[in-house]
Amino acid sequence: MTESAAVQAMTPYELLGGPAILRQLVDRFYDIMASDPRAAGVHAMHHADTTQIRERFYDFLSGWLGGPQLFIEKYGHPRLRGRHMPFAIGEAERDQWMLCMLQALAEVPMSNDLREHLEEAFMKTADFMRNQ
Q1: Is the C-alpha dihedral spanning 7, 11, 14, 15 positive or negative?
Q2: Distance (Å, rounded) from C-alpha 6 to C-alpha 26?
Q3: For 108-131, what is each residue's pLDDT tens digit?
Q4: Does the UniProt entry include the keyword Secreted (predicted)?
Q5: What's the first-to-final CA gap in the chain, in angstroms?
Q6: Which superfamily is assigned to 3-128 in CATH?
Q7: What is the reported pLDDT for 8?
Q8: Longest alpha-carbon distance in the chain
């Protein structure tokens, strides 16, 4: 197998760098959400203590990116839309969430190709979560 083929066979989780870099991404995402006034609306949907949601998001992203299926092992199928139905998510909330994620992706070391892939995948998912 060529080096290029080996890279193509890797999951986004592996390309990102595994658990340590994923943890960095999740923590940076929530730190931005808590500190950027442009994300105040989406930040208000979360508890003041984000310890638990950080862990759940980390677990979810681990499996979503092709790594260990931590979320499914602990909580079952993610059912993203169902779990987010109690929250009014419109374009503004989607855009605030994406603002935080795009900034976190920009700050975490990864290849440009992976960053572009993740930006597109997160945007599709964030748009899918709209319920307003």
Answers
A1: positive
A2: 27
A3: 999 999 999 999 999 999 999 999
A4: no
A5: 48
A6: Globins (1.10.490.10)
A7: 65
A8: 49
| Measured distance CA(105)–CA(85) in Å, rounded | 26
The pLDDT value recorded for residue 6 is 46
**How many beta carbons lie within 10 A of that of residue 103, not counting itself?**
18
Domain boundaries, the chain: 3-128
Q: Which of 67, 3, 70, 60 is nearest to 26 (CA)?
A: 60
User: Residue 85 has what DSSP assignment?
Assistant: T
Q: Return the structure tokens found at 113.
A: 């190709």
CA-nearest of 56, 90, 52, 93 to 76 is 56
13 in Cβ contact with 69 (< 8 Å): no
Q: How far does CA 86 lie from the centroid of its chain?
A: 19
**pLDDT score, position 100:** 98
Cα separation values, 42 from 51, 76, 106, 119, Å = 16, 25, 20, 18
